[in-house]
Design goal:
Protein name: ABC transporter ATP-binding protein
Shape: globular
Structural class: alpha+beta
Number of helices: 9
Number of domains: 2
CATH superfamily of the largest domain: P-loop containing nucleotide triphosphate hydrolases
Oligomer: single chain
Keywords: ATP-binding, Cell membrane, Membrane, Nucleotide-binding, Translocase, Transport
CATH class of the largest domain: Alpha Beta
Strand order of the largest sheet: 7-8-9-4-10-11
InterPro entries: AAA+_ATPase, ABC_transporter-like_ATP-bd, ABC_transpr_MalK-like, ABC_transpr_MalK/UgpC-like, Mo/tungstate-bd_C_term_dom, NA-bd_OB-fold, OB_MalK-like, P-loop_NTPase
CATH topology of the largest domain: Rossmann fold
GO molecular function: ATP binding
Organism: Chelativorans salis
């Protein structure tokens, strides 16, 4: 296995910049997810590792090798595609063994290796079948087996689970997690599904408009989102975000918004210097950090009941404020939550997030500077 490094990498297509000044390192044995919406540059980034796209500027390194202009076949990488890309006229054994065939391995050696990998992936009994004779989940494992059959420095995954139904995706996700722990492979995985990224990654690179806006372990991305974009993209339901007016008084921060009542907040010295009374900020609260409350309390937000969704072990309660903004709470309960009319939701100061007018996170006193 090997590390992957991007040294100030930019990729342009004519006047359009798909990836801008990328400078991250993926460690040896790490499983890194490139996460973001369509068009954010994550697949272009993956293709530059594979050698299917050439950077407009900067360097791509695999280990100590500069592979920026190296042919894909010389990079010691394997890739799993979104559509599996299996050859319909070959049985599974030949599909899996194909990378060994193009490298000149004998039929005996490549079929023995194909069976070895297929057995690991629980498809050894299907090797004589054609791709059209197996399920989507089995096709996905066949594509994965083909990637693993030849030892590689880096394994690349381009949304490999997106064509599977919900149950198979869950099963395949668990299998990939198990495989990563067993093999310790260096993997780069493209997805727009934040649940996949949270479940699989050792670190997540959240991308927006060609820029990595946060690169951190999953729990850090979830608990300390660097921007409002990350806060809104990671989480299901996403973080509630509310525009508020900041007021500084007696060294404390007071927040004002319709229907909002908050206790004075202590902020770090760095944040206090950046704040002025009357500035617009954004308050963020995760749905699981909201609970039903009565009126008149501090750290509450009130509005009319918009939706009350029973999800089994939890209920999603959404209120709508006078300005049509909505707040959703995740209430963990086995009972049906009976609500109507005006609803008040409460939260702890320890679980709020603040973002400045640029959408960047502001540190609070309950967090480290």
């Amino acid at each position: 296995m090997a590390s992957v490094s991007f040294d100030s990498v930019t990729k342009r297509f004519g006047d359009f910049t798909a990836v801008s000044n990328l400078g991250i390192t993926i460690g040896d044995g790490e499983f890194v997810c490139l996460l973001g919406p369509s068009g954010c540059g994550k697949t272009t980034t993956l293709r530059m590792i594979a050698g299917l796209e050439t950077p407009s500027a900067g360097r791509v390194m695999i280990g100590e090798r500069d592979v920026t202009f190296m042919h894909p076949k010389d990079r010691k990488i394997s890739m799993v595609f979104q559509d599996y890309a299996l050859y319909p006229h070959m049985n599974l054994a030949d599909n899996i063994a194909y990378p060994l065939k193009v490298r000149g391995e004998s039929q005996e050696k490549r079929h023995a290796r194909a069976r070895e990998v297929a057995d690991i992936l629980k498809i050894g009994q299907l090797l004589e079948r054609m791709p059209s004779q197996i399920s989507g989940g089995q096709q996905q494992r066949t594509s994965l087996a083909r990637a693993l059959v030849y030892p590689s420095d880096v394994y690349l995954f381009d949304e490999p689970l997106s064509n599977l139904d919900a149950k198979l995706r869950l099963e395949a996700r668990g299998f990939l997690n198990h495989l990563q722990r067993d093999l310790g492979m260096t993997a780069v995985y493209v997805t727009h599904d934040q649940a996949e990224a949270m479940a699989l990654a050792t670190r997540i690179a959240v991308m927006d408009a060609g820029i990595v806006v946060q690169y951190a372990p999953p729990l850090e991305v979830y608990r300390r989102p660097a921007t409002t974009f990350v806060a809104n993209f990671v989480g299901n339901p996403p973080m509630n975000l509310l525009p508020v007016e900041a007021m500084i008084s007696d060294g404390a921060l007071h927040l004002k918004a319709v229907g909002l009542a908050t206790a004075p907040l202590r902020v770090t010295r760095a944040a206090a210097k950046a704040l002025e009374s009357g500035k617009s900020l954004t308050l963020g609260v995760r749905p699981e950090h909201l609970s039903l409350a009565s009126g008149g309390e501090e750290n509450t937000i009130a509005g009319q009941l918009f939706a009350n969704e029973n999800m089994g072990p939890e209920a999603l309660v959404t209120l709508e404020r006078e300005d049509a903004a909505r707040f959703t709470a995740r209430i963990f309960t086995d009972e049906m939550v009976a609500l109507e009319g005006r609803v008040t939701l409460g939260f702890s100061s320890d679980h709020i997030h603040l973002f400045d007018e640029r959408g960047l996170r502001l540190p609070l006193d309950h967090e480290e500077d």
